[in-house]
Amino acid sequence: MTTATQRSAAPDASASRAARIALVGDRSPNVTAHTRIPLLLDSLTATDHLALDPYWIPTEDAEDPDAVRGFDAVWVLPGSPYRSEAGALTAIRTARESGIPFLGTCGGFQHTLLEYARNVCGLTGVAHAENDPDADDLLIAPLACSLVGHEGTVTIAPGSLAESVVGARTSIERYHCSYGPGAHLDTLREHGLRFTGEDEEGRPRIAELPGHPFFLITLFQPELGGDGSRPHPIVRALARAAVHHAGVAA
Prior knowledge:
Elements: E1 19-24, H1 32-47, E2 52-57, E3 73-76, H2 85-98, E4 102-105, H3 107-119, E5 127-128, E6 138-142, E7 151-156, H4 161-166, E8 170-174, E9 179-181, H5 185-190, E10 194-198, E11 204-208, E12 215-218, H6 233-249
Parallel strand pairs: 1-2, 1-3, 3-4, 4-12, 5-6
Antiparallel strand pairs: 6-9, 7-8, 7-10, 10-11, 11-12
């Protein structure tokens, strides 16, 4: 498992048959998710016997559309503001258009909505308030109440990918964010994005893309669940999707 160094180029497919997972984010020891995720993937290798080979890709390197090509999964991690919004959006778009299994959590959720709004819905002027607070059209806006350190119930839509992954209609999840979706949600729905999880107030907390092999985003952080020793079902599902993709690709 590649955890000591960051690599920006897609690895040689002939070098390993392990499932290659691109961890897109600006790695920091101060971001809890960044310290937990390698341990969770190690745990899946040990307990589920999944051959996983993760690579860290800084958002600046992800500006190259080829940065995540050849990977078996892409995970856009928490830790925004990213050093490169463009890099995060490019990685998301490549995974979406190329059918690469994809997960976006917290900042990954927010930026996936931004990518979809701009490139699928034609809402080229929408912005993220964390990156452009003075923009006229904020798709991602400051939350009325910060979710930093918050834990709450998420209700999951029946028949959704999220339900099949979590295995339940409700789940208690943890957050660490101050921004969330605001405007244009109906437009996102009209263009095929499905919101499949909501909080106690009916606000969207999970979304997915029907027809894609595996495309799931959550405003909450599944990697923060429990004490970090047992992977959340969403993390396990991404790993299994990556292994399946590696098998198909091979």
